[in-house]
Every structure is written in structure tokens, then in C-alpha cells.
Design brief:
Elements (H helix, E strand, L loop, with lengths): L1 H12 L14 H27 L6 H21 L8 H12 L2 H18 L3 H22 L5 H9 L15 H5 L17
Helix pairs in contact: 2-3, 2-6, 3-5, 3-6, 5-6
């Protein structure tokens, strides 16, 4: 029994354990929270995709296709987030390892792209909730790809810089020549005297 527990623990612990070289520093709760959100999103996408497939009884073909796409998206997300759910398919683990070696914005873009088509093809609560969770998982990965926010002192120093790269460049007002040559408005005069200011 302990060998099965160690096997599952080893499979679940493997993704994103080491931060990518030069990548953003990610807190542990975001790292594992995104995995849990991805698993929940995949489960509900498959479940509600099946609900959309059953809509063929009402002869709604677009919802049938949207349900199939949503179920495939759910299986893709589950395969990438928890390859331990597919122990008999070795290609799933290879695909998950390949995706883990890529930057996080690849995964964010993939999940966001997988979440859109079912919503547009069959707008309803089933496709909105199922695919919306996949899109939310992509948004979380996108936020993780952006990295940690700068400190208050760094942001304040960046806001006080006047030029690029910290060079202080004297600023001039671009509109100073326009304002000096402006003509006053005249509501009683002809339209041609307007200075377009």
C-alpha cells in the first residue's frame, strides 16, 4: 500500500518543483493552487461537456460540437496538470514533462485558447462554467508568468524617473507653441476665426 502512496505522491510532486532558470519566483500556494484549480476545471469541463453532448436530443448540433471540444479540453488540462490520472499512457507523461519545461505563459495561452471555443459555440451555463474554469486556470498561470510585483520603493523610484533608463532629460511642453499662437474664441464672429484649440 505504501508503494502506491509513494507513486502517487511522486507523480503529483513532480510538476514545477524547481523554478525555471531565469523564470519568475512563484509562491508555493500559487504553484499548487493552480494545479488544484486545473484539476477542478478539467473535471467540471468534462462533466459539463458531457451535458452539452446530451443536448443532441434537442437537435442542437453546435452544442454537441462545443461539448466535444469542452471534453477534449478537459482531458488535455487533466493530462497536463495531473498525468497520474493516466498511468497507462506513457505519452501523457512525456507531454506533461515537455509542457513543464516551457515557460508558464505557454500553458497560460493554451488554457485560455482552449476555454474560448465552447463558450462561443454554445453559450450556456454548462459551457460558461466548464470552459470558464479552464480560462481562469490560464489566467492564473498568466499571472504567475508575469512574476512578483516590485516593491513600493522600486515603483516609487521608477515613477520619479523622467527619462528612459534613469537619465534625467529636461522636459518641454509639446503644446507650448500652440498655446502661444492661439486666438480667442468669438461666439459672435465668423466660423473661420476658430483657432482649432
Amino acid at each position: 500500500m505504501s508503494s502506491i502512496a509513494e507513486w502517487i505522491t511522486g507523480r503529483m510532486a513532480r510538476p514545477n518543483q524547481q523554478d525555471p532558470v531565469g523564470g519568475p519566483e512563484v509562491p508555493w500556494y500559487l504553484k499548487y493552487g493552480s494545479r488544484v484549480l486545473g484539476l477542478v476545471a478539467a473535471f467540471f469541463a468534462i462533466l459539463f461537456g458531457l451535458w452539452n453532448v446530451v443536448s443532441i436530443l434537442t437537435l442542437d448540433v453546435s452544442c454537441l460540437v462545443a461539448g466535444i471540444i469542452q471534453m477534449v479540453a478537459g482531458f488535455v488540462v487533466m493530462a497536463l496538470e495531473a498525468p497520474c490520472c493516466f498511468p497507462c499512457i506513457e505519452q501523457v507523461e512525456q507531454a506533461a514533462d515537455k509542457m513543464d519545461s516551457k515557460p508558464m505563459y505557454f500553458r497560460a495561452g493554451l488554457y485560455c485558447a482552449l476555454g474560448f471555443p465552447p463558450i462561443f459555440m454554445c453559450f450556456g451555463l454548462a459551457s460558461l462554467f466548464g470552459s470558464g474554469l479552464i480560462f481562469a486556470t490560464g489566467a492564473v498561470y498568466g499571472m504567475m508568468a508575469l512574476g512578483k510585483k516590485a516593491s513600493v520603493d522600486d515603483m516609487r523610484a521608477a515613477a520619479q524617473q523622467t527619462g528612459y533608463g534613469g537619465n534625467s532629460v529636461p522636459t518641454t511642453n509639446d503644446r507650448s507653441g500652440i498655446v502661444n499662437n492661439a486666438q480667442p474664441f468669438s461666439f459672435t464672429g465668423a466660423v473661420g476665426t476658430d483657432s482649432n484649440v
